[in-house]
Every structure is written in C-alpha cells, then in structure tokens.
C-alpha cells in the first residue's frame, strides 16, 4: 500500500512506501503476566529516568504488549480502556524515533476531540522530557488558525490535531508532511 501525501507537502518529495509488517489487536483488559518493568525494554537511561520521575513504575497491560512492538517499529492496532496507558504505549516509541535537530513534522497524531488532543499532547510533552528541544504542537478547531500557522512556520516535531483542523491546514498548505514517518490515530471509545 502506498500513501502519497506529496500534494500536501511544500516540497514535492514522496513519502516512502508504507508496509504493514504487523498488525495486532490487544484487548488489554486481561492482565499480562510477564516482567512489567520498563527496564526490561531496551530504552535509553534518560528515558527510564524520566519514566521513574513521572511515577511510571511498572508497565500496564497495554504497555507490556504494545511497547515491544512499537520499539521494533511494527505497525500496531491496539484497544484499551481510558486510563490504561495507551499514550505511553505509542508515545515512547514515537518520541525515540524523532530527530531533534530536524524541526519538521516527523509525527502526526490525530484525535477525534479537542479535549483528547490536548490530553495526548500534554502527556507526550511529559514523556519527552528526556530530550531537549522537542516541540509538540496541538492544533484544534475552535481556535484561531493564525497563531497555529505561525507555530507551524517555526517547526514542530510532533503535531497533535483534530481531523477538521488538519483539513484546514492541508488545504491552506501550511502543514508539510514530507518528513512524517509516524501517524497515530486515536479513536475515542466509550468504556
């Protein structure tokens, strides 16, 4: 499957082919009975230290099942209840893949509501404390688009947004996805 986002990028560079090398569905309601320490994962010490400071002592079920797959750069489909740690499950791997010196949008997180987008962006900012100069930008409808365009002009590593606002920025040509390597769709669930 090929995802051609070139018509939405300022440059006409094409994104590489997206291959689905794995797809997983994790119910995550059942406890996962393995070593639940973040230290068992091949994470940098700065990440482990930050997780410890944030109070992340042990992985939740969704994190135990999803993080090894995310760190192996496999495609993932996961489902878990609100508050189960889904943002950390995808966010840690997403943040580790970023190149901080490249101030281009490298990851896009789509959320169905402004409230969820704000929550996800705030959690990603906390998880990103292990490295300096990572910019995570929230772009949602119901807010003036002008300041958002200004923020995009200065570059953002991760853009968290709602679908309506992404359409606005793509239509205006204010968002370049030429450097995007990761896309995450957050779906609101009723739990």
UniProtKB/TrEMBL annotation:
GO cellular component term, pick one: cytosol
Superkingdom, taxonomy of origin: Bacteria
Pfam families (alphabetical): DEAD
Keyword DNA-binding: no
Domain DEAD-box RNA helicase Q span(s) in chain numbering: 36-64
Alphabetic keyword roster: ATP-binding, Helicase, Hydrolase, Nucleotide-binding
Helicase ATP-binding domain residues: 67-191
Entry protein name: RNA helicase DbpA
Lineage of the species this protein comes from: Bacteria, Pseudomonadati, Pseudomonadota, Gammaproteobacteria, Oceanospirillales
């Amino acid at each position: 499957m090929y995802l051609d986002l070139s018509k939405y990028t300022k440059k006409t560079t094409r994104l590489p082919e997206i291959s689905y090398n794995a797809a997983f569905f994790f119910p995550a309601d059942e406890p996962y009975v393995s070593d639940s320490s973040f230290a068992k994962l091949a994470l940098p010490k700065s990440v482990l230290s930050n997780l410890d400071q944030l109070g992340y002592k042990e992985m939740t079920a969704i994190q135990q099942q999803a993080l090894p797959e995310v760190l192996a750069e496999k495609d993932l489909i996961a489902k878990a209840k609100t508050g189960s740690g889904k943002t950390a499950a995808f966010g840690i791997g997403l943040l580790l893949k970023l190149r901080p010196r490249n101030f281009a949008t490298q990851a896009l997180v789509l959320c169905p509501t402004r409230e969820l987008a704000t929550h996800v962006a705030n959690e990603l900012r906390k998880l990103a404390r292990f490295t300096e100069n990572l910019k995570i930008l929230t772009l949602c409808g119901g807010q003036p688009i002008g300041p958002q365009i200004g923020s995009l002009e200065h570059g953002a590593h991760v853009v968290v947004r709602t679908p309506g606002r992404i359409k606005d920025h793509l239509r205006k040509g204010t968002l370049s996805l030429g450097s995007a390597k990761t896309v995450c769709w957050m779906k609101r669930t009723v739990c």
